[in-house]
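Example: Flavoprotein.
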Amino acid sequence: MGDTPTAPSTPSADTPAAPATATAAPPKAAPPPFTGRRLLLIASGAVNAVHLPYWLTWMRSKYPDTAVQVVATRSAQRFVTLQALSALTGRQAIGDTWTDDPLPTALHVELAEWADSVAVYPASLHYMARAALGLGDSPSLLALHGTAAPIVLAPSLPPRVEDNPAYVRHLKALAERPNLSVAPTRPGVSMTTGRRDGRTAPPLPDVLAELERLRGALPKNLGEEIEENSESDIDSLR
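Written out as structure tokens, the predicted fold is:
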């Protein structure tokens, strides 16, 4: 799992440094344009996940008409609780595991059909590798493979991983998908070494801006398909 925090070390014009507490007020700067109305946010097991309450507070303030559905892996739940994620989005956050309860439809299909935007934030090395290899061993991964919506993965990586040949191969595999982008990482202080040799995910506003760029680049027929799928209701599965 990544061990660098997600917020930038120095504030910029539109993305302030991380708040001291999760209840701090959202940024005051104008947010980037974002037309998504159903954002599927997948949180994986990097320490950046601890900042999700901050960014979800900001998201709810700046984009009140956008529904955010969080799916959190088991590793992500070491850093942030499903209860907190549910309270801050107004929707029940989902653990990224298969349930033994009988359901009328498949969760991964409902997630893929519902979302008009997908962000993996943060994306750990393990999650990136699973996505690149085409694995479908969790609801979120199957949804990721089955959606036509724009997808942005925001990696959070330990020191020296970004130059590892295995990781570089994963990036090349992910680049083959026309509706997927991997957000550039930023230098970050490793929570373990104390040095600025980690790579951290960019602020969430940068991810939203990249989602919007991808949306504009999608073929018209894909955009129409996403809109047609808007009637999917994942609430019926919970």
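Residues 4-26 have pLDDT under 50 and may be disordered.
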